[in-house]
Every structure is written in structure tokens, then in C-alpha cells.
């Protein structure tokens, strides 16, 4: 097993010999296959505005290195020895000192049920490993910026399988409103949550509900706060779990590109 190689300083070296500049996206790579890590390191390290701050061969190493290097983002494989990517993601998401660290999960198959577990654990999105290099780099930028990255078709199929049992009866809704959805949300906030679950970004939500973009963004932020959601990926899960959105409604074309869920 390859041991992790943390950087010697807070300004990790780039492959070209330069140092990481302020504002660069600091990426931690976690994968148990040395060749895969090496390929990702070359790709990410050569991309403008990105630098690799460490490599981990197990989930436990990923958590330890995240705490030592404070990356912007962890590119996390799901299936690793010692501690898998799901548990590693959960530990990173639960660590207050790593509040700004995002996790982008990589999986071999877009039908991997473990992807949903990783999203529930706090991952901000997922991509399959055969994603084109340019799409992987775009995905890193998207998640590092605070948006969620979801593939609508695979996400819908995964949630449909995991939620084959009917959702629990809604709790705490206003009497007589008749719909489903999480407790404590206003009628407008439920509309916003449904549209987030369908994959709309803030501008699209604003258009659908005849709101200003700023108002739509405020509603999304309030929903995230009320549901204690780490990011929009978890709002999508909440929309499915509550019954506001059902599989098939939000699915995009099979095999289509990943969808950014954000501003």
C-alpha cells in the first residue's frame, strides 16, 4: 500500500516546480490505485489555478491529510481499504475545522448505490471515473466554488432504488396544505426545494417562480439552513426523500453530462 505524502509546507510544490499561489484550488487525491492517483495528479497539477496538496491510498489517510493540508477539495474514491470513501467523507463533513473542505466523489459506475451514501455523508457531488479530463477539471472548479455537481439521470435512478419504501408521512406541515415535504418549510420554500430537486439553478428557479435572482438565492439559503443541509446536493436528496420529487421527473438524458446545481 502506498503511503500518503503530505506536502512539506503550506505552499505545496507544483509539478513545474512552482509554488501554489493564493486563491488556487488545493486538491487532495484519495484513491487506492497508485496509477490512478498518478494520472489525476498529472492532470490536476498541470491545470491553471489548481495544485495537488497530497495523495492518500486509504480513507483514513485522506482524513488525516485533509486535517493537515486543509485542501479546497478532496477527490475521493469510494472503494478504499482501511476506511472507505463514505466514512472518510462523513468524518471530513463532521469536522468543524474542515467546514470549508468539499468532497467530490469518483466512482467506476454511475449505478453504484454507495454514491447515495456518500452524498448523504456530505459529498458535494459525484462523477464517474471515465469522465473526460476537461469535465473532471470543470467538476473540481464547480464543487470548489461551493456548488453541487450531480448527474441527474444516475442520481434519480440511485435515489429511486434506495427509496423503494414509501416516504414517511410528512411531519409538522401547516394543516390543510395537503402536500408532502420536510417539516418547517413555508409553501414558497417547498416550491423552491422541489425545483432544486429537479435540478434547477437559482436563475431558473427565479424564472419559474417569477422572483428576482436574489430572492431565489435567499429562499435557497433559508431552506438549506432549516434543513441543516451542507450544500445543494443534500437538498436534492431531501426533495426525493420527502416525496416532493420522484424518480423520472428530474432525470436528464441517460449518459448525459453532469449537471451543476448552483447559482
Q: Can you identify the CATH class of the largest domain?
A: Alpha Beta
Mean pLDDT: 78
| Shape by Cα distribution | globular
The portion of residues forming beta strands comes to 5-15%
Output the number of helix runs: 10
CATH structural fold name of the largest domain: Rossmann fold
> Structural class of the secondary elements?
alpha/beta
How far apart the termini lie comes to: 41 Å
The count of β-strands is 7
Question: Mind telling me the CATH superfamily name of the largest domain?
Answer: Response regulator
User: H/E element string?
Assistant: EHEHEHEHEHEHHHHHE
Count of distinct structural domains:
2
Helix content: 40-55%
Q: Care to describe what's here?
A:
The chain has 263 residues and is an alpha/beta fold. It folds into two domains: 122 residues, Response regulator (Rossmann fold, 3-Layer(aba) Sandwich), CATH 3.40.50; 103 residues, Arc Repressor Mutant, subunit A, CATH 1.10.10. It is built from ten helices and seven strands. A five-stranded parallel beta sheet has the order 2-1-3-4-5, with helices on both faces. A two-stranded antiparallel ribbon has the order 6-7. Helix 1 links the parallel strand 1 and strand 2. Helix 2 runs parallel beside helix 3 and helix 7 packs across helix 10. The longest helix is centred in the last third of the chain and has 14 residues. The radius of gyration is 19 Å and the shape is globular. The protein starts with 24 loop residues before the first strand and ends with a strand.
Amino acid at each position: 500500500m502506498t503511503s500518503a505524502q503530505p506536502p512539506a509546507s503550506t505552499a505545496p510544490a507544483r509539478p513545474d516546480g512552482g509554488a501554489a499561489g493564493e486563491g488556487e484550488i488545493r486538491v487532495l487525491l484519495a484513491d487506492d490505485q497508485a496509477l490512478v492517483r498518478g494520472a489525476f495528479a498529472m492532470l490536476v497539477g498541470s491545470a491553471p489555478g489548481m495544485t495537488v496538496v497530497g495523495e492518500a491510498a486509504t480513507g483514513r489517510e485522506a482524513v488525516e491529510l485533509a486535517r493537515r493540508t486543509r485542501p479546497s477539495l478532496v477527490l475521493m474514491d469510494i472503494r478504499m481499504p482501511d476506511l472507505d470513501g463514505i466514512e472518510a467523507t462523513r468524518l471530513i463533513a463532521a469536522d468543524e475545522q474542515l467546514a470549508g473542505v468539499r468532497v467530490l466523489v469518483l466512482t467506476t459506475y454511475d449505478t453504484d448505490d454507495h454514491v447515495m451514501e456518500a452524498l448523504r455523508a456530505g459529498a458535494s457531488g459525484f462523477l464517474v471515473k471515465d469522465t473526460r479530463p476537461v469535465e473532471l477539471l470543470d467538476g473540481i472548479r464547480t464543487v470548489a466554488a461551493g456548488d453541487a455537481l450531480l448527474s441527474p439521470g444516475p442520481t434519480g435512478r440511485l435515489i429511486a432504488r434506495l427509496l423503494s419504501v414509501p416516504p414517511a408521512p410528512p411531519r409538522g406541515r401547516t394543516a390543510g396544505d395537503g402536500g408532502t415535504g420536510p417539516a418547517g418549510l413555508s409553501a414558497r420554500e417547498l416550491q423552491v426545494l422541489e425545483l432544486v430537486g429537479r435540478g434547477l439553478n437559482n436563475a431558473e428557479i427565479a424564472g419559474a417562480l417569477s422572483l428576482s435572482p436574489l430572492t431565489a438565492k435567499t429562499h435557497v439559503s433559508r431552506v438549506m439552513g432549516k434543513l441543516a443541509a451542507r450544500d445543494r446536493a443534500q437538498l436534492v436528496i431531501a426533495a426525493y426523500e420527502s416525496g416532493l420529487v420522484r424518480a423520472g421527473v428530474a432525470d436528464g438524458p441517460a449518459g448525459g453530462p453532469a449537471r451543476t446545481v448552483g447559482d
